[in-house]
Amino acid sequence: MSAPTPPEFNESKPNGGNSLEEDVNAQYAGLEFHYVYLMVCAFLVWLIIPGIGFLYSGLARRRSSLSLLFQSFAVAGVVCFQWMFWGYSLAYSRTANAFIGDLANFGLKNVVAAPSPGSVLLPEIVFCLYQMLFCVCTVVLVSGGSFERGRILPSLIFSFCWATIVYCPIACWTWNANGWLYNLPSLDFAGGGPVHIASGWSALAYAFVLGKRVHKGEKLHGKPHNTTLVFIGTVFIWFGWFGFNGGSALNASVRSMMAAFNTNTAASFGVLGWVLVDYIRSRGKFSLVGACSGAIAGLVGITPAAGFVSVWIAALIGFLTGAICSSCKNVDQWLRIDEGMDVFKLHGIGGMVGSFLTGVFAQKWVSALDGASIYEGALDGVGVQVGRQLAEICAIASYSFTVTCILLYAFKFIPFMHLRVTEEAEMIGLDLDQFMDEQIGDWSILEQHSLQGVSHPSSPQTSSEGVGEKSA
């Protein structure tokens, strides 16, 4: 029995047809499993958003943990609006140039039932939702660069602007059929460049522009206040990443299944790579937060390579990325930039490592598992692919860091858009400064009394800084 013929995009029906006059589902008859699978993957990707919130909240000091949970959802709201307004069109319009899309799909015009620009097997509305969640995850990662000292309102407005002038152009370069990196071609299966390199370098820029945190009378943030939240956040992220990588083939082929297997493999070996370096460095001690960081590093490293490599190479990529990121323990001190959430270490450095190794290890037999794509790396004799990957790394890193710095410095000249809280607000914590008191609870009130030197009969004897551990 022959497979159903995929539909073709019809310029006379850019929205896929008039649902009042025809059955727009008929064109996908026999292909429903592809877009149902992608919808399930989209639901999994959504879990990464609260996962990042939990992770960041657990890593921060208690008095600023609520602000990071809030930002994960608030950013999701802002970016959803941005994507519907013009973000999707700027990234994926069919009439885009090599650098950025036009406004052909402004306000999601005609984004309904037509075959999507990413895959003719998907209605465009499914593709749009899936890619929107990628953008949300990326912007939430960037917000980690402002933790414990960034004002929330300017951060949300910055999120809209950053998604527009940084993420959307880079997504267009990488994944739009007209993009210059797409046609180079650089190999980026699920977002090593647009998601990880861009977010890592942009978070570094955010931390650089804000400056170092104030820490009068106390040690600068060195330990997470709640390792349980860190663990739970990592679980959400790991689980959500099955959809992040597994769905990026944009079909339900064997290649998608390989990408999902590679995702788990790289995360597992990332744990081993990070923990091994930690164990050697600490002379026989383990770290739960280190294991969580290793899992995320492995996930980041395999993201660009998931649909291009075999399972044992995925294991190697995960292990190397975990070990390299763990070895960069003092990168903040080397750069003299206070980026305490390790976004640059895990996503910036991890993304660059993964993108480079994709050029080395990409195998054509793996990419051909979906019956359509054939891409090769140095392992298959195409050594020039390493150079193409380096071009992608340099272009995305330099663009995201430079444009993010310019954007943030511009905010300083806009009334009421100053990026940083006052020194007093930073010392008492963002939760008390930026949120209604009744939402915070007694614990943060007690901590405020402690910071101001006020004793309280029911206050705990241990400080929030003594709970948990800090990854390398």
TrEMBL record:
GO MF term list: ammonium channel activity
InterPro entries: Ammonium/urea_transptr, Ammonium_transpt, Ammonium_transpt_CS, NH4_transpt_AmtB-like_dom
Domain Ammonium transporter AmtB-like, first and last residues per copy: 37-437
Amino acid composition bias (Polar residues), ranges on this chain: 452-465
UniProt protein name: Ammonium transporter
Coiled coil: none
Keyword Ribonucleoprotein: no
Region spans: Disordered: 452-472
GO CC entries: plasma membrane
Compartment(s) where it occurs, according to its Swiss-Prot or TrEMBL record: Cell membrane; Membrane
Entry similarity comment: Belongs to the ammonia transporter channel (TC 1.A.11.2) family.
Membrane topology summary: Multi-pass membrane protein
Database matches in Pfam families: Ammonium_transp (PF00909)
UniProt KW keywords: Ammonia transport, Membrane, Transmembrane, Transmembrane helix, Transport
Transmembrane segments: 35-56, 68-86, 120-144, 156-176, 196-214, 226-244, 256-277, 286-306, 312-331, 343-362, 390-411
Organism whose genome encodes this protein: Bimuria novae-zelandiae CBS 107.79
